[in-house]
Amino acid sequence: MKKILILNGPNLNLLGRREPTIYGSLTFEEFFESLKKKYADTDLVYFQSNIEGELIDKLHEVGFNFDGVILNAGAYTHTSVAIGDAIKGIETPVVEVHISNVHSREDFRHTSYIAPNAKGVIAGFGLQSYELALESFR
């Protein structure tokens, strides 16, 4: 059974309440429960933090024994050299995901410090971005 971590960064704990026209009305916990049912043959683990160091610590923790990481680093995508370096330093492949199409948003969101070290990037498909990332590990 494959073991996949879904790792969410800052402000993603507000899904379901934060800007529902962009991010939808479903909480991530509700969505995660549906993913676990749909992908019952995969050991899915979920972790969210608003703290950059906790995201790095989690990458270090799973980065040599999980089969994949699906990472939505939120705004840290565009600011955190440290998260990019953490991904470069681990063996577990990471797929960068975004709910919104970051390339249709503010210019600063067009740069990712994660993408150069990621297996791939999926953006703009709402919560389905996570499901598409999961499919990449099958």
Automatic annotation (TrEMBL):
Annotated keywords: Amino-acid biosynthesis, Aromatic amino acid biosynthesis, Lyase
Signal peptide interval: none
Pathway as given in its UniProt record: Metabolic intermediate biosynthesis; chorismate biosynthesis; chorismate from D-erythrose 4-phosphate and phosphoenolpyruvate: step 3/7
Binding annotation for substrate: N72, H78, D85, I99, S100, R109
Enzyme Commission code: 4.2.1.10
Site, as annotated: Transition state stabilizer: R18
GO terms of biological process kind: amino acid biosynthetic process; aromatic amino acid family biosynthetic process; chorismate biosynthetic process; quinate catabolic process
Domain of life from the UniProt record: Bacteria
SUPFAM superfamilies, per the entry: Type II 3-dehydroquinate dehydratase
Catalysed conversion reaction: 3-dehydroquinate = 3-dehydroshikimate + H2O
EC category name: lyase
Listed GO MF terms: 3-dehydroquinate dehydratase activity
Keyword Amino-acid biosynthesis: yes
Keyword Cytoplasm belongs to the record: no
Annotated catalytic residues: Y23, H98
InterPro entries, per the entry: DHquinase_II, DHquinase_II_CS, DHquinase_II_sf
CDD domains to which the protein is assigned, alphabetical: DHQase_II
NCBIfam families linked: aroQ, PRK05395.1-2, PRK05395.1-3, PRK05395.1-4
Family of this protein: Belongs to the type-II 3-dehydroquinase family.
Protein name per the record: 3-dehydroquinate dehydratase
